[in-house]
Amino acid sequence: MSNKIIALVDGSEYSASVCDYAAWVSQRTDAAVELLHVLGPRPAAEQSDLSGSIKLGARTALMKDLASLDEQRAKLMTHRGRAILEDAHSILISKDVTEITTRLRHGELIETVQKVEHDAKLIMIGKRGETAASGTEKLGSNFERMVRASRKPVFVAAREFKPVKTVLVAYDGGPSAIEAIDFIVREPLCQGLSILVATAGGDKGRVRDSLADAQAKLKSAGFEPTTSIVDGNPGTALAGLVAEADVDMIVMGAYSHSRIRTLVIGSTTSAMIAACKVPIVLVQK
Q1: Are 7 and 36 spatial neighbours (Cβ–Cβ below 8 Å)?
Q2: Distances (CA, A) of 129 to 40, 69, 132, 156, 280
Q3: pLDDT tens-digit profile of 198-242?
């Protein structure tokens, strides 16, 4: 596997944070950073035939004008995309990242990422994109699609960068949660950080045993993890714990077969990730 992370930048207010966190990940993992900006397909309105009711020679002239306008618009978007990549590159340089590449691609975002992620170890994206409404904490339209489509861990950057000292692992004992623990063990990203492994849903014997297994695995890898069991709805309870324990980053499995499944594929996901003003690493199984 290539030691490279792909950071998606789109010119939104989250792009700078994506770059800041990409620099942090790069320095902790010694990974190269590939900055990716995707020029999407033209909106449907731009693709419509505006010459349908034009007669005779006027149609030819109009079609030439429309073609010229499309060409100018395409050039403008390309120039803008390059400017976004240049700005992102400058941020990484200022953070002492030395191995940086930039890539400008045309196409649909999710399909493009699927084509280029094969040699990456991590995909980085902001919670909200350029087209999201300003002043809201709702997640961007591409977020859940990205998590579902990518076969790599997805790092969801918060709005503003904050040094990471404490990591919360949202754990339920399922395959994806176990993979999240394995991710922490095998990757240098979390080395030297405080690890809190937590679950929601009540203090039952099976839950305690599962947390103990996760704690033992982390201890064998050199960590000194603590554990916590909180009552209530997983999204609300764990989001509260993030604030209470001064958590700086969350690591969790992207899919599961228990109550915490709703954290990723249901409405609770959006609520928790939007409410927690910290980055989240979603690990696929």
Answers
A1: yes
A2: 13, 26, 6, 11, 16
A3: 988 766 777 888 899 999 999 999 999 999 998 887 777 888 899
